[in-house]
Design a protein that fits this description.
The chain is mainly β. It has one domain. The protein contains 2 helices and 13 strands; from the N terminus they run H-E-E-E-E-H-E-E-E-E-E-E-E-E-E. Strands 1, 5, 6, 7, 8, 9, 10, 12 and 13 form a 9-stranded mixed β-sheet that branches. Strands 2-3-4-11 form a 4-stranded antiparallel β-sheet, with no helix packed on it. Strand 3 and strand 4 form a beta hairpin. It starts with a helix and ends with a strand.
Length: 216
């Protein structure tokens, strides 16, 4: 009896650990992240994400990354760049698709999307990475999209942040909406999503719990 109780305790512990590493959502999911788990970027503060939400409406996905500080805190030194990376396993099959560059034991993804925090300039310029100068007019979000080849780590770019939809950022939230067609899904699609904090460590610790998501 004692051995049986020990076995059940270990089994429950393993199940709890496994469930902590994967979250499920139908139409919407919200994930929280610890404060301070990022690295500096060229001596500048890393963009510290504390919450991510994904919402589907039947035709598009809205992705929102909430930062610890106002966007100006992170971009005041002219360091535009990615906030989070989303890797989409759109056919829910781990045997088809590519492999994220950072982390281990993650595979089977068809698309990667980088949610970008960009800097707008008074002369009309837009920096999606780094800077174009000191004459800042404001900040906006955008995204870059990539498509994986089978078993490859480096996906191919299919559109840049300069070509994508942009939305002004005024506070702590970096938000973008992408149509289902960008990642080849339709209403009712079941997919797996791996989300990485872009300024996190170059290990599995930079990932949120993996998401199993059913879109509206």
């Amino acid at each position: 009896m004692r051995r049986c109780m020990i076995f059940l305790s270990v089994l429950l512990l393993c199940c709890s650990a496994a469930s902590a590493q994967r979250k499920a959502g139908r139409h919407k999911i919200v994930l929280e992240d610890p404060v301070g788990d990022v690295q500096e970027n060229d001596g500048k503060p890393g963009k510290d994400v504390v919450k991510v939400s994904i919402t589907s409406d039947g035709g598009s996905l809205t992705v929102v990354a909430e930062l610890r500080e106002e966007i100006s805190y992170y971009l005041k030194d002219q360091m535009a760049g990615p906030v989070i990376e989303l890797h989409f396993n759109t056919d829910n099959n781990d045997k088809t698709g590519g492999i994220p560059f950072w982390g281990t034991e993650k595979k089977g993804f068809e698309y990667q999307m980088n949610l970008m925090a960009c800097i707008k300039y008074k002369n009309g310029g837009l920096a999606t990475m780094g800077s174009l100068g000191d004459d800042i007019a404001g900040y906006c979000s955008s995204y870059s999209m990539y498509k994986y080849k089978q078993d490859k780590k480096m996906p191919e770019s299919i559109n840049s942040a300069l070509e994508s939809t942009q939305k002004d950022i005024n506070g702590k939230e970096v938000e973008i909406t992408i149509p289902y067609s960008e990642i080849g899904i339709k209403p009712g699609t079941r997919m797996r999503i791996a989300i990485r904090e872009s300024d996190g460590p170059f290990t599995d610790d930079s990932y949120f719990p993996e998401v199993f998501f059913i879109v509206k």
